[in-house]
From TrEMBL:
This is XRE family transcriptional regulator. It holds the Pfam family HTH_31. It comes from Actinomadura rubrisoli. Residues 42-73 form the HTH cro/C1-type domain. InterPro entries: Cro/C1-type_HTH (IPR001387), DUF5753 (IPR043917), Lambda_DNA-bd_dom_sf (IPR010982). One of its GO terms (molecular function) is DNA binding. Coiled coil: none annotated. It comes from the Bacteria. Gene3D superfamilies: lambda repressor-like DNA-binding domains. PROSITE patterns: HTH_CROC1 (PS50943).
Length: 291
């Protein structure tokens, strides 16, 4: 691991120990989230056993800041560490069971969390494999995409998507946005030709803004890590979080090591993506097909 990156991480963690981590711990709701329940009870069990955060860190083979992040739910408890805790505290596998429940549970708040992170982000990096990213969609394109799916209430989902866009772009200092689009995004028709014409015109206008960069990964780019699926990297409160797409619901990655893996994939995609100028030319060429 890059020692400069690790030093920066430790500096941010130290800076947030009494601020961000304590604030996150105070906002935990163990009645509404299994992960919050795990974080709260980890701290209660630790204190009941008379252990300091440093002592638990020594037991787990990690530093004290990791324990603090477990207890504030800014980092989800790892299975290997839960196994050690269950063994040492004789909990009959309770923490391992709780992690299993948490991973299987659909708590229904992932989209709300995503919108909140997007609204607070100072930098948003996106990779999209098949459709125009939601933040860059026109209303007509979004409507065509949502009505083609299995949404119970596409009108409500459409309004929610438009509000997400407004929360990101309609503010005095919008975030720096970089979007890598797979060539399939350009080839896939969503809605009528008129819808596609409006969407390409919108992408071209967005790409001219100083805080938005849109680049295309062309068909001949070959295999790369982005083939695993779409994702986002969001810089929020001086730290990066990752969000990966899935068929039914997305997944957040908070652990710095997991986030770094996504960031490396993003950089790799950037190595094979067309530069901004040629990418704009590709968007114009697609627009002309629908003229």
């Amino acid at each position: 691991m890059n020692p400069l990156w690790l030093s920066s991480l430790r500096s941010r963690t130290h800076r947030n120990k009494r601020g961000g981590l304590m604030h996150a711990r105070d906002s935990l709701d163990p009645r509404g989230s299994i992960w919050h329940f795990i974080a709260v009870h980890l701290r209660r069990y630790r204190e009941a056993h008379g252990m300091s955060g440093q002592a638990l860190g020594d037991l787990l083979g990690c530093d004290r800041s990791t324990v603090s992040r477990y207890e504030s739910n800014t980092l989800k408890l790892k299975r290997d560490h839960a196994k050690i805790i269950d063994r040492e505290w004789n909990t009959n596998g309770m923490f391992m069971d709780l992690i299993g429940f948490a991973e299987r549970a659909d708590e229904g708040d992932w989209l709300v969390n995503l919108a909140d992170y997007e609204a607070r982000a100072t930098r948003i990096r996106m990779w999209e494999t098949s459709v125009v990213p939601g933040l860059l969609q026109t209303r007509d394109y979004a409507n065509a995409a949502l009505t083609a799916g299995t949404n119970d209430d596409p009108d409500a989902d459409l309004d929610r998507r438009m509000r997400r866009q407004a929360s990101v772009f309609d503010k005095p200092r919008p975030p720096r946005v970089t979007a890598f689009l797979n060539w399939v995004v350009l080839a896939q028709q969503v809605g009528s030709p008129e819808v596609m014409r409006g969407q390409f015109a919108h992408l071209i206008e967005l790409s001219k803004l100083p805080h938005i960069s849109i680049r295309v990964v062309e068909r001949h780019a070959g295999a790369h890590p982005g083939l695993d699926g779409s994702f986002k990297l969001l810089t929020v409160d001086d730290r990066d979080v990752a969000y990966t797409e899935a068929a039914t619901r997305g997944r957040f990655l908070m652990d710095p090591y997991d986030v770094q893996e996504v960031a490396v994939s993003y950089d790799w995609i950037g190595d094979v993506a067309a530069p901004v100028g040629p990418s704009q030319a590709l968007l114009v060429a697609e627009l002309e097909k629908y003229a």
